[in-house]
Amino acid sequence: MSRTFTLKENLGLQFAQWENTTIISADISKQQREVLLANFKAAIRIPSVSFSQTHQNTSALREFDQLLRRVFPNVFSSSLVKHEVVGNYSHLFTVLGTDPELVPYMLLAHIDVVPANEVDGWEAPPFSAKELNGFIYGRGTIDNKQCVMGILQAVEYLLERGYVPRRGFYIGLGHDEEVYGYNGAVNIAKVLKSGGVKLQYILDEGLAVMDGIITGLNGPAALIGVSEKGQATVKLSASTRLGHSSMPPKENSIGILAAAITRLEESPMPRLFGYGPEQSTFEHLAHKFQFPLRFMMSNLWLFNPLLSRVMERRPDMNAFVRTTTAVTMFNSGVKVNVLPSHAEAFVNLRIHPAQTLQEVLDLIKSTISDNRVKLELVDGFDSLPISSYDEQSFGYQIIKKTLLDMFPQVTVAPSICIGNTDSRHYMDLTQDIYRFNPTWLSQIRSERNAGIHGINERMSVQNYEEIVLFYFQLIQESDIRILPPSHTGQHEL
Ligand SMILES: [Zn+2]
Fold this sequence. Notes:
The protein is α+β, with helices and mostly antiparallel strands. 32% of the residues lie in helices and 23% in strands. The protein folds into two domains: 14-227 and 388-477, Zn peptidases (Aminopeptidase, 3-Layer(aba) Sandwich); 228-381, 2-Layer Sandwich (Alpha-Beta Plaits), CATH 3.30.70. The protein has 15 helices and 19 strands. Strand 3 (81-86) and strand 4 form a beta hairpin. Helix 5 packs across helix 15 and helix 13 (394-406) crosses helix 15 (461-477). The protein binds zinc ion. Zinc ion binds at residues 110, 143-144, 177, 205. Keywords: Hydrolase, Lyase, Metal-binding, Protease, Secreted, Zinc.
């Protein structure tokens, strides 16, 4: 019971004595506000869509390059900033710091978006940036042009006001994140690696502020992604002899493969809730849950089995409980009166951090347990290493302080990203990668199929201003030399 009442993880270093480096005020005039918003809308109106790895709207990407140069003149002319185009359409900015002893950090975002069709039920055309009830509608408003424009707008303001960073930093804007980042992020990381760059931390897109989304939680939660689930695409196939449908054998390739798929769907991967970073998520949030959830979240060691049974009923929560299995393609047959000689299916799995890719493959094999079904790994990787989030963790604490200074009402907790981001291509440059930006997801999630990659993707005018200010503050906060010593000197977890 005492755990239930003593875990107030949110405060941490917040009351410690921080060196004050946020000297430049973020006062934005009414006129600047209008410009800031116009810049964001202009970015949304450019349809920088990634259709596939080989098909991107490259003229939109060129147009986007022109937009950045036009609306951020200080960024592109300052002697403190070096700009490079990488992989034809991605951007790398190097901002020099005055103290070469301080290890630089990096901010990431991506320019490309997934396709969007107005006929799917958008209230405003997806590349219109139309403003409705205080929201700007459009593909990319929350994934991820709010960060592309937010970061550069913040740097533009800082430079305009005479800011000179003490700690250097990089900005990487990828152009093909939605199709794996092999041209953008991979090449930016290569440039940095060849220059021998090491990074203090990386902040990329990923998680957000969840307001009213987590059942039973009082108040909003800012979830900072400290890892990402792994992924695997597996091809299953079955082959039988070709023949005429008038003399069919007892089973053919379609039936064999369908039975295998059914077995996979009927036996989900094991429950692993509480064995990965999601354990910390709920422990950090525990004190904000209503009873009896608060008691259960504070004592996960006891309630894990019960909680995972409740969580797995909701697809979005099930993703935290286990490696998920999704059959995404099934192909077979050529003619109505010909027995198919071959059937194949593709299965996409998102791997829980407590399991390895190999373990997942072994489990699929034993679940199917039919030697006639061939299993091939198309591609895949383990879940990503867990970044630090204790009181010595520079990046995590800077992000947390910036957040709590702006939004004292949020509870900050480490968590895991279900999807993957560009940042996984930067793993050789730092151990500490955080996936977060202060986009408030609330109203958006209450509609089915809305938001990220869905219909009516939108960002409130106020929230976009907050995102600019967040980066404006974060860049200045990152100038501290070292973190302050812990205020309480005690750390429960
Ligand atoms: Zn994204």
